[in-house]
Amino acid sequence: MKFILQLGAKFSLKPHFIVRRASRYFLLSKALLKIAKKNFYYSGNYLGKVKNGKFFPSFNLLMMLAHGEANKIVVEKKSAWLFICGKDIFQKGIISVHGSNNKGNHALVLNEYEECLGFGRIVHSLTGSSENEVVVKNVSDIGDFLRREK
Amino acid sequence: MILRLMSRKAFFLDRYERLGWKFRKVDPKQAIRLNTTNIRGKNLEERLESIGVQLEKVPFLESGYWIQSSRVSVGATAEYLLGFYSIQEAASQIPVTLFKSLKGKTILDACAAPGGKTVQLSDLMKNTGVVVALDIKKQRLSALANHLERCHVSNAIVYELDARQASTLDMKFDKVLLDVPCSGNFVTDRNWFSRRKIEDVKNNAKVQKKILTEAVKLLSDQGELVYSTCSLEPEENECNMDWAVKNLNLRIEEVNCYGEKGLTEVFGSQLDSTVEKCRRIWPGKTQGFFVCKLKKWGRKA
To answer: How far from chain centre, in Å, is Cα B33?
Structure first.
């Protein structure tokens, strides 16, 4: 999957546990697979959806990826909060970088407790930019749960 | 119009008084429930305190806290968005705790949206087994799905299905949760007295009986059924339990939880004596609530 490659993640799921419902993908346990009827609305771990040929990962999938090898940046408290509010990440907010920091790649954004808050696109060098420069553009963050309710 | 509203309010307040409770205005504190599966190894209380949320343990709940005071909206913290806790009224956290040994079981949450109790079930099951969650309204299903995703629930399956048709699932369940649609109460709805008529209560009671009847078909012989409402009206509570005992081959189980004994005399009618094993919660520290645990009678020899 292109998305997973862009995150530099080494990750695989057993295809027979993945179920597609319209444009959405779910990862089902053996017990759920056994009872699932075709018309379910939601089940197991929601993985994401495809819209106009593009894959939009769920936060569950991002969290799974964050537990393994992937491009990640850990940001300080204020940057974490602003990121949840939909803002981008400035160089000065980064505490540490893991994996690739190549421009154009994606990176998971983690808070000081290393909890995944979403992901962004690397737009400038994560290490060589000036501190007031936006280095990661917000693509998706957990604040989306609130935005969906509106 | 004002006179009509007053008389409607007076009508219900008179009923409550005849049932043994004198109306007073109450304002229960907002409550949260920690999702223990998601906060393993984290000191959530300390983290919330550091952002200005003061918690008070709810004495009758294992994972429930009242919000004493807060500088932030508890529905918009990073910890909330990460699924570490849910906002759930204290009394409504009780029904799920009445089930015994949930791990690995197959459970039906027949009227599930917006999903507070579904998430609580999953949490107590440590994401093992299966929770089948139903709701009739598509719009409510989206709120339910968001709740499940936010709280990392992985053992649930959701269908758009009326609980009165749940037997079309063709399954048997170890536990059934019936947090049935009800008239609600004045604590959570400021306009309750102007919006509700006794006819609504009676209609809700009919629907609840239908849901109960359907749920019993799906309950395994040794299974447990928990029935709850946030209504104060006995027609939706004790009277329905009395009816279930007399018509559905069910017996009421003793429970050890917050609340008063169920009423066994309602407006001059005597109900089955076992109805007192139910728990009725008049508004006070919590909203009004009613809960009852039922099991099937064993097969007769």
So the answer is: 14
